[in-house]
Every structure is written in C-alpha cells, then in structure tokens.
Input
Amino acid sequence: MANALVIKKWVANTVADSDGNLVHIEARPAGIVAWAMDMLGMGVTSRLLVSDRTVTYENSSWTGHANVTFTTDKITGVVHGTSKPFREALVLGFALGVRTFGVGAIIGVIYYLMSKSLTVGVMVGNIEYSIPYKKTTVDGVELGKEQAAQVAAIILSRMGAVA
Output
C-alpha cells in the first residue's frame, strides 16, 4: 500500500451535496513540510469525488494536475481495507533488537502502531484509484474501517447507474 495520507476533507452521504457529490475525500501527504506547503497553496492534494453518475480521481500540486473521470458503470470493483505492517515491524524490531538488547523490539512495536493505514477507492479494469490514509478524526468524526465501508457501499450503490 502506498504511503498513507492525511485526510483534509471527508464527506460521504447517500444524498448529493451542493456540488452534486455523494463522496468527497481530500487528502495530502503527512509531515510538517507537506503541511507547510499546503498552507502556502503549493501542497500535493489527492481527491476522490463520486457523484450519481461519475467518479473523479485527482492529484494536484504546484507543479501540475492530473484528473481521471469515468462513469460509474465503468467501475469494476470497490477497494477498502486496512494495512498492518507486521512483517516490516518484525524485521525492524529483530534487526535493531540484536544490537540494542531489546530496544529494537520496542521500536518495532511503535513502528507497527504508527504505520497502520486504511484505504478506500475504486477499480476500473485493473487500475486502482484509491486514497490510503491513517485512522484519524475530521470534524469530530473518527475515520476508520466503518467509514471506509460506508464509502464503499455508496459507490457500490452507484455502480451501473448510468443508463
């Protein structure tokens, strides 16, 4: 799974908003530099927009913009799930633990806890358009597995909606 992003906006409803979107997810890379760039309007932003009949996946930054839009009847699958980096944490803990007498094991556990992530998106053919993110809270709503499943259910309800 790609590096997890930080969610900036998360809207998922069965009724379209004023822009016609049922789903509007917006995210940026994690970190202080990405945050500062975002505050200056030069940050990298990923968006997943789902309306009644279309899905739009966007990536933009101060260096350019890429946008893919397709109708909901072209969706071949919905992606949502979790990534738990157990193997990487185990290797890290073991590799550092041999030299540091157990401190590496603590570092491995911390890495595991800090690196868990979720993803939500769609498949069109064999191409995945998804947003990987860390469990977080936006506007008082915890964004975990349940919210990703809700987005997936909304997208599934729109698959094949174009007549």
About this structure: The chain has a mean pLDDT of 83. The longest strand covers residues 21-29. The beta strands are 5-12, 21-29, 45-51, 54-61, 64-71, 77-83, 117-124, 127-133, 136-138, 141-143. The two ends are 34 Å apart (CA to CA).
